[in-house]
Write a structure and sequence with these properties.
InterPro entries: Acyl_CoA_acyltransferase, GNAT_acetyltra_YdfB-like, GNAT_dom. By secondary structure, this protein is of the alpha+beta class. It contains eight helices and eleven strands.
Length: about 240
């Protein structure tokens, strides 16, 4: 059995299956792909097995001074990008459920304190948001009008919530989760992540959990919820030079 579903591998590998190979060795590959969209005109993916794949448009390759049959390494690749003023957004970890863990998840029953949230929960959700810091709200990006929203309650008070939306016109459902500070470490976040992920699977989507590399709390939650690290993803910064 493969560690992850084919849908995950296909999604992340598809940009590297088109275009021309600029450089390739056992651990590092650079692809020139003219079909990349504007937001992804430079992208780097490091998979769980240690392989690093970079893809960029012909225009970005020209700007950075790359040419065919050039000896490259990940380090020299990044140096050339920096010298050309091409900056990458801070890397995200990508977590998914393994095929084995998915089977376990799909056999679980919804915990009694966790349920889907609807428009009827607007007052509770507003109170929940007002109890969280602006930084936590920005980091989590949990919204009541997202494609799917689940919440965990403590004596009828909403204390943890997760929401999802289809990501990049794919069958990936990107999720965010937020738990009020005084209720952390009590299992609420784990329950909402697993519950909303099961719902996503039932709708034909693959749950996706992203977080910054330095967000150790979020990394710990991903692992506690049964997710497995797929790799790291970097994309060109919106503020990067054209």
């Amino acid at each position: 059995m493969p560690l992850f579903s084919q849908a995950i591998s296909d999604f992340w590998l598809s940009p590297f299956m088109k275009g021309n190979v600029l450089y390739s060795d056992e651990v590092f590959m650079v692809i020139i792909n003219p079909e990349l969209n504007e937001d992804s005109r430079v992208m780097v993916v490091e998979t769980f097995d240690g392989g690093v794949m970079a893809v960029l448009t012909p225009a970005m390759a020209t700007k950075a001074g790359f040419f065919e049959k050039e000896e490259l390494s990940e380090s020299t690749f990044r140096q050339k990008l920096n010298k050309a003023g091409i900056t990458l957004h801070g890397a995200d970890y990508l977590f998914y459920f393994s095929e084995a863990e998915k089977k376990v998840l799909m056999q679980e029953s919804l915990d009694g304190v966790v349920r889907p949230l609807t428009e009827q929960d607007e007052v509770r959700f507003s109170e929940f948001q007002s109890s969280a810091s602006e930084q936590d709200l920005d980091d989590a990006y949990v919204e009541l009008d997202h494609w799917a929203v689940f919440g965990s309650f403590d004596q009828n008070r909403l204390v943890s919530a997760a929401s999802m939306y289809p990501w990049q016109a794919s069958k990936m459902a990107d999720l965010g989760v937020l738990t009020l500070t005084s209720y952390r470490g009590k299992g609420h976040a784990r329950k909402v992540v697993r519950s909303i992920s099961k719902y996503a699977y039932e709708q034909g989507y693959e749950p996706q959990y992203r977080c910054q590399l330095d967000n150790l709390t979020s990394v710990s939650l991903a692992k506690a919820a049964g997710l497995t690290l797929f790799g790291k993803w970097e994309v060109i910064s919106p503020n990067s030079a054209n």
